[in-house]
Amino acid sequence: MKCTVNQLADDLDRDQFDFDEAADTCGLSEMQRAFAHAILRGANRTQAARQAGYGGTDDQLRSAGYKAYNSPKVQALLALAKREGFGLPDEPGDAEELKRLLWKHARGDDKNHAIRAAEVLHRIEKEEAAARDANTPGDPIQILKAMAAIDPEYAAKTAQAYKIDWTPPELADAERCPKCHQLILART
């Protein structure tokens, strides 16, 4: 009997996804059932084959994982599980979810993954710190100088409004900016 998603959906209670019942309906072997369950928990095909009890070298496990994953019975079960919301979501996660996943790898037993995850976490932290620093206001005098290059009068008014003692020589010149000169005189 060929197992289809629609047939499974009709056979199962819509409110409750029962992995074992769905696997039985599809006629999965114990290894296929274990393989599909590992895939739904987030394992890749090679990891899922290893967890399901397939044996051999990494190349043989990769091949067994490919064959098991592409089995029509396993595909039907995975499609139904996805349709019913079982397993890991396919939509992209947010930055916090990524960091949680990286921290899980950084604390894991596989030292190569731990080192790589720590490197990525460090890079993310540096990028976030740089973004925070870029949004932090700088030195008020430097900001006023930049403003003065565009509009000296506005820069002088801003300095006066915020009670900043700022008098660049080029703005103190009465001929260049008479209003600025008056503002400076009023401050003293």
Helix percent reads: 55-70%
Number of domains: 3
- The first-to-last residue Cα distance is 95 Å
Report the total helices. Answer: 12
The helix-strand sequence is: HHHHHHHHHHHH
Sheet/helix structural class: mainly alpha
> In one word, what is the shape?
rod-shaped
How are the SSEs placed, and which strands pair?
Blueprint: H1 5-11, H2 19-26, H3 30-40, H4 45-52, H5 58-69, H6 72-83, H7 95-106, H8 111-135, H9 140-150, H10 152-161, H11 169-172, H12 178-187
Helix pairs in contact: 1-6, 2-6, 3-4, 3-6, 4-5, 7-8, 9-10, 10-12
How would you characterize this protein structure?
By secondary structure, the protein is an all-alpha fold. The protein folds into 3 domains: 5-83, no CATH class; 95-135; 140-187, no CATH class. It has helices spanning 5-11, 19-26, 30-40, 45-52, 58-69, 72-83, 95-106, 111-135, 140-150, 152-161, 169-172, 178-187. Helix 10 packs parallel to helix 12 (178-187).
What's the short version?
The chain is an all-alpha fold.
Question: Which properties best describe this structure?
Answer:
rod-shaped; 3 domains; mainly alpha; 188 residues; single chain; 69% helix
